[in-house]
Amino acid sequence: MALRYALLGLLAKNEATGYELTQQFKETVIHFWTAHHTQIYRELLKMEEEGLTHSKTVQQSDYPDKKIYTITDKGFAQLLEWMLNKPVNVPKLKDDLLLRVSMFHFIPTERAIDFLEKSKEHHQMGLMMTKKWQEENFPKGTYGENELGEYLTSEFGIRYMESWLSWCNWAIKVLKKKGES
Amino acid sequence: MALRYALLGLLAKNEATGYELTQQFKETVIHFWTAHHTQIYRELLKMEEEGLTHSKTVQQSDYPDKKIYTITDKGFAQLLEWMLNKPVNVPKLKDDLLLRVSMFHFIPTERAIDFLEKSKEHHQMGLMMTKKWQEENFPKGTYGENELGEYLTSEFGIRYMESWLSWCNWAIKVLKKKGES
DNA sequence: TAAACATATGTGAAAATACACATATAAAAA
DNA sequence: TTTTTATATGTGTATTTTCACATATGTTTA
């Protein structure tokens, strides 16, 4: 249900195609919401049926046609209604790596450290990219009127990844200490 | 698919009922995986059909009968096979509050701060409880042989909530600065 | 005295999500 | 020269997850 509000929130800032929305999910929304591209396209169709968005098809010669979506007044009204009057659901997390960590006592220590090292690489990469993105979009912490939300959540993403890396280093230390004994 | 491995991991440590597993999900697994109790009961039934677990029903006079599940050799073998040979999926997150934060530019500043203050309370509570749980279960950082995983992930939970709180304070400061102008 | 909470396990149906696949073309990289 | 990547939007199906509800009883709280 809330996927639509994520999409409406993005459309309230800029009109966009399903493809562009998918890219934005990977770039910025990733810090707090995940969705498959097929799910995004289907939700866009449903929202148009309900009059929350409106689309125009644009022909392109060398690429496939694209559908540009805009938010309607009704859509924006529903977005605000949700934001201000609907209860905040508990966060839902599924972290495959942490699930494995929770069973590290079943596997060899070296293998466990491998998992953490690989995960460190991923998070280091993500951290670098998000920092770069942040510098490009909010140089010296300056943000536009309609960018406040993105500014706050991208900072969340950075802090999350930093905290992840620091925890990872701690966990590796614990494992190495255990390996010695 | 991975829910079953979370359950097998817990059962590999101790036999348990569906009810108890649900409690454990709320207490410790919460830091990396969420599941509804009906989903847990259904997965347990399916796993038993597939011979990964085994159950015995225990009659109780004043409470309803309970089914105590144990992991089978086949179940443990599959758990290890998954841990060591299956690719690690990308984490999936749905955070309703952060989704709202990403649209804070649409609502009054005071209202936005309210959201963050309430969220701070939740995380402060969670942090306290997890710290208490950690002290009870791992006094002075000592953990048993089959508790390594829980030790590492509970520390992750604590650091996550601390980082959350610190980000929250930062965000509130940003909003207050904005409110002044 | 009534309501809520803890114990304990589920079913039926709906909604959300993921997986495999399909289509179509150009540019860039291996 | 073959493969991969980027552009762009989907369908059909399967799996996962949630929601509302059901059952049954003892204790605690308002």
TrEMBL record, chains A, B:
SUPFAM superfamilies for the chain: Winged helix' DNA-binding domain
Domain Transcription regulator PadR N-terminal: 7-79
Residues of the Transcription regulator PadR C-terminal domain: 93-176
Ranges that cross the membrane: none
Protein name in UniProt: PadR family transcriptional regulator
Organism: Fictibacillus phosphorivorans
